[in-house]
Structure formats: C-alpha cells, structure tokens
Specification:
single chain, 302 residues, alpha/beta, Rossmann fold, 7-stranded mixed beta sheet, 11 helices, 43% helix, binds S-adenosylmethionine
Length: 302
C-alpha cells in the first residue's frame, strides 16, 4: 500500500516545516524538502507554528528531535569537509539534500546510497526543481538494498577510491536494517577505508525505548510509554518497522571491533540549549524526546 519512501518523506516533511520558520528562528533550512512531501501545499498554508504544534501533539519534541539530528549532522559534515575529507558517502540518503544545500568544497566527491525506487523519485524531483550540486562534480547515485547487497561492491563499481579519506553518514536508518546488516556495513566501511582515514556519523534508537521507555524522555513527559509505542507503531504502519535498537555499550564495542572510536554521542537533551535556546525556542524538560542518539566516530587512523 505504501511506496518505499514513506519514512524518507516523513523526515523531509519536518525539514519543510522547519524551513517555513522565519530565518532568524529556524534551526535548519532545506529549500528542496517541499518537493518530496505529499501535501506540501497545505503544510505551507498552515505555516511553521501550527505545523510544529500538530506534530508535537502526536509526540512533544518529535519535530525538534528530527531537526536537531539534521542540524548536528549538517554541522559535522561541513566541518569534516572543510578539514579536507575527499569523499562523502550518504548511506540511506532518502530525501537528504546535503549534497545540494550545504557549503561543501567543490572538490568533494559525493555518493548517495539508497533503494533504487527512492532514488528514482528523488532524482526526478531535484531535476524538476533544478537543484544544483553543492560541489563541482555530479553526485553519484548508488542503489542498494543493505539487507541483500554488498556496499563495497556497489561503491567500487561506481568509482569509490579506497585511497581517499572518506566521511560516511547514516541518518535515521539503523533502526530499519538488521543488526547483522549494520555490523556488515560497518565492516565494509572499515575494509573500504583500511588505507586511509574515515569518519562515520550515524544515529541510532536507544534500546531503552523498549525496555524502559520513560528514560528516553525528559522528566514529566506526558504518557511517555504510550508515546514510545505510538512512534514505533507509526513506523510499522507505513511498512518500515524499527527492527534494531541499540545500547551505547554495544555500539561502542561494535565500533571498536572495526577500528572506530566514538568522539561524540548526543541527544536532543544535549542539543536543546545549543540549537533551540539561541533562537528563543528552548524546550521544557517535559518536552524532551531523546529516543535517538547522534554519534560521530572516527577510525584510529583519522
Ligand atoms: C527515515 S529515512 C531517512 C532518510 C535520510 N537519511 C534522512 O535523514 O532524510 C530511511 C531511509 O533508509 C532507507 N533504507 C531503509 N532500509 C533500507 C535498505 N534495506 N536498503 C537501502 N536503504 C534502506 C530508506 O529508503 C530511506 O530513504
């Protein structure tokens, strides 16, 4: 019943909503998000405030959580690129438009990796919107089903250079793929970059969401357990259930097995004061939603 881009659209929708905020209060700006969202016209008519209020009726802080995730990764991508990383691979890119909207060095080579159905829609929409690439080169689109295809084979066939330093991002994807697939993807990233430096930025859903959901929310958050079930239920309903949740310890161990060490691990709780307070939008403790963690890891050579 649902096309494969259900969750990619869901994230693009929140980016569209955030982009409707006045320039001096918005936390991210994605001028292309509207192209991917069913009902974008209605959302634009409702505007930022009402759209955020409606989203947060479903789960307070849900909008801010997704926007903090995007902003956090945006900043790290721009920083890593400015420091001279040569290649950037966006894993499970969906309707992420970093390759078009961020300030990136013109020499950076970008690969976007996702399911072919999602990429076809994305490419058609971006062509229609005449979205220029943020770098001087064409973006390489590599199609994959992480669960059944080999990342390195697909990337190497598309011209990935194993000698060049590389940044990988995996935003909002780890919950949709099996733990075995996540581990093998990490193994492939390590193998692809064994002769160079690598940075891996990703998000993961806290295992506490199932075992002790109250701890994934700020103090006094209304009906935390019920909301946790609703959020997971919604993903399942659009045909993309959350099958893999992680503890921090398990991830640190897994990353270490493949030569990566965690540099940062953040949640909305950490980023509220950094992104929302400066624009007068501080979330109260009882609106904090920290089901996902945002992690930056580097390989030992980096
Ligand atoms: C929630 S969306 C996030 C998209 C994007 N990273 C963002 O933050 O806007 C999840 C993405 O993972 C992709 N995905 C999920 N399972 C996948 C699989 N087995 N193989 C390839 N891509 C997959 C989906 O197509 C979708 O684009």
């Amino acid at each position: 019943m649902f096309s494969k881009d259900g969750t990619a659209q869901g994230v693009a929708k929140q980016r569209l909503i955030e982009s409707l905020a006045p320039a001096d209060t918005r936390v991210i700006y994605d001028p292309y998000a509207e192209n991917f969202v069913l009902g974008a016209r209605l959302i634009k008519l409702m505007g930022h405030k009402l759209s955020v209020a409606l989203t947060n009726k479903f789960a307070p802080g849900f909008h801010q959580h997704l926007i903090a995730r995007t902003r956090y990764i945006d900043e790290l991508v721009e920083k890593t690129a400015a420091q001279g990383v040569e290649q950037y691979v966006i894993l499970g890119a969906g309707y992420d438009t970093r390759a078009h909207r961020l300030t990136l060095p013109s020499s950076l080579t970008v690969w976007e990796v996702d399911q072919p159905e999602v990429q076809t829609i994305k490419r058609a929409k971006l062509a229609k919107a005449q979205a220029p690439s943020a770098t001087s080169a064409q973006i390489h689109y590599v199609s994959i089903d992480f669960n059944h295809q080999c990342l390195s084979e697909q990337l190497l066939a598309a011209g990935f250079d194993t000698r060049k330093s590389t940044l990988f991002t995996l935003e909002g994807v780890s919950q949709y793929i099996t733990k075995e697939t996540f581990a093998s993807t990490l193994q492939e990233i390590a193998a692809l970059t064994q002769n160079t430096t690598a940075t891996f930025i990703f998000s993961y859903v806290d295992a506490l969401l199932r075992t002790d959901p109250e701890r994934c929310f700020g103090k006094g958050y209304p009906k935390a357990k019920r909301r946790a079930e609703m959020v997971m239920g919604l993903a399942a309903k659009v045909g993309e259930p959350w099958i893999s949740l992680y503890t921090e310890e398990a991830l640190v161990e897994l990353l270490a097995e493949h030569g990566f060490s965690v540099q940062e691990n953040k949640t909305l709780d950490d980023l509220n004061a950094v992104y929302f307070s400066p624009v007068g939008r501080t979330l109260a403790e009882n609106q904090i939603f920290k089901l996902e963690h945002f992690v930056a890891a580097t390989s030992k050579k980096a």
